[in-house]
Amino acid sequence: MKVFSKIDELREELLKNRQNNASIGLVPTMGALHDGHASLLRAACAENDYVVVSLFVNPTQFAPTEDLAAYPRTFEADCRLAEEIGAKAMFAPTPEEMYPEGDSTWVEVTGHLTAILCGKSRPTHFRGVTTVVAKLLNIVGPCKAYFGQKDGQQAQVVRRMVRDLFIPAEIRIMPIIRENDGLAMSSRNAYLSEDDRAAALVLSRSLNEAEELIKNKGLRDREEILSRITAIISDTPQAQLDYAEIYSFPDLEEIDHLEGEIFIALAVRFGGARLIDNLVVSI
Ligand code: AMP
Question: Among 276, 264, 157, 259, which Cα is nearest to 208's?
């Protein structure tokens, strides 16, 4: 696997491969790779001739009060894992490479899709995500780019951007990979104390409980399901609820009556760590 920090050098390498008719896949990450990232990489390697994994802790998607400086960085281990899975290139640019002096362009999906859920708690977050993903798609020019359903709203925001800007890449959304006990894998799980790690099971537990109420008990009332979820979370003293919401899936529109595919999403804080999780339920 070759490691690139410069856009021009990566592009030169990709041009050679494109001339040999190689299909290119892109897996954007912020590093501290775990099995969730590995699942995207495996899918990308199965479906493309040449896979680029990008590793960039994107400053523009963090608010000044957030965890940019503390974000876990495990570059050597990330390179080993990506190479083992079969990535051909690691793109790890500096912030200056991605945002050179004078950079003044944002790519922003506006409206409901970015105003709800994480967009409400982190108002500048998705603008940072779409700006950096647009840059990465332009730099790499992949046939397919891979995102995780773990960040379910992000995946839909990226899909919308790609559709609206006619970016010629297919966005592939891969399932959530969980620890054996149900906790969705996340680089931010490293922030959890032992006590909070145990308490964090409340996310997957309350989502499973909601699914059970819908599927086995026939509950269809949005408010009632949300109040059951919030009751479970407020019973966990370490957990501080940021949001619990239900929307249609995949468009994330408001719904009262639950039918078709629905998206149940949670964000919960444990001390300094903010964890998100979601479940798509087919009714
Ligand atoms: P991150 O490095 O956290 O920005 O994540 C990079 C990509 O990996 C995003 O598309 C995430 O949605 C995806 N991802 C992160 N955690 C998981 C997981 N547990 N299962 C599946 N995909 C994940």
Answer: 264
> 37 catalytic, yes or no?
yes
Q: Which two tokens stand for residue 106?
A: 């944002």
CA distance 227 to 205: 14
Nearest to 243 by CA among 233, 253, 251, 258: 233
How many Cβ atoms are within 10 Å of 198's Cβ, its own excluded? 14
The CA distance from 124 to 271, in Å, is 22
Distance CA 145, CA 157 (A): 14
Residue with tokens 């400086």: 69
Q: Report the separation in Å between the CA atom of 151 and the middle of ligand 1, taken as the mean of its atom positions.
A: 7
What pLDDT is stored for residue 102 in this prediction? 98
From the list 235, 213, 249, the residue with the least C-alpha distance to 117 is 249
Beta strands (DSSP E) in 43-106 are: 50-55, 89-91
Positions of the chain with pLDDT under 70: none
The pTM (predicted TM-score) of the whole model is 0.98
Q: Is the CB of 185 under 6 A from ligand 1?
A: yes
Rounded to whole angstroms, the Cα distance separating 112 from 72 reads: 31
Amino acid, res. 141:
G
Supply the pLDDT for residue 257. Answer: 84
SS3 34: coil
Q: Indicate which atom in ligand 1 lies nearest the CA of residue 187.
A: 3
- CA 233, 243, 65 angle in degrees (round to 5)? 110
Which of these, 200, 194, 181, lies nearest to 238 by C-alpha position?
200
pLDDT for position 256 = 84
Residue of 57, 68, 144, 151 with the most ligand 1 atoms within 8 Å of its CB, for mutation? 151
- Cβ(174)–Cβ(149) below 8 Å: yes
Q: Is 184 in the pocket of ligand 1 (CB under 6 A)?
A: yes
